[in-house]
Amino acid sequence: MTLQTEHTRRALVAGARDFNRGRYFEAHEAFEEALDSLPDNVWDLFVGVIQIAVGYHKATQGLSSGAAGMLERGMEKVAPFPADAAGLDLGGLRERAAADAAALRAGTFDLERFRRHPPRLRFV
After folding, report:
1. Could you give the residue ranges of the DSSP H alpha helices within the chain?
2. Which fold has domain 6-116?
């Protein structure tokens, strides 16, 4: 699956850079910039990654139930995509988001540990 446009690739790289710096709100904004110009085959992928970024933003703000819900919605959106969709390690992101959503729901999410070992958007 290719992203087809340079604008889309730049938005993905910018969003991943913010995400990997723990700037989840800014990451979601970078991804949103590309939504209007996305090819149909990756629109749901970007929306899902946006929702995951928003979930992590909420988690860092102490909003556990809202964070878990956004992570779960994001995972539902990206579920149909292969583990390496659009050059992303989507499998790794799904695995981490699922574990974090479960911890948020169970009340065992450790924000300090999360900050020491944050999730990453990796390219494959």
Report:
1. 6-20, 24-33, 40-60, 64-78, 90-106, 111-116
2. Hyaluronidase domain-like (1.10.3450)
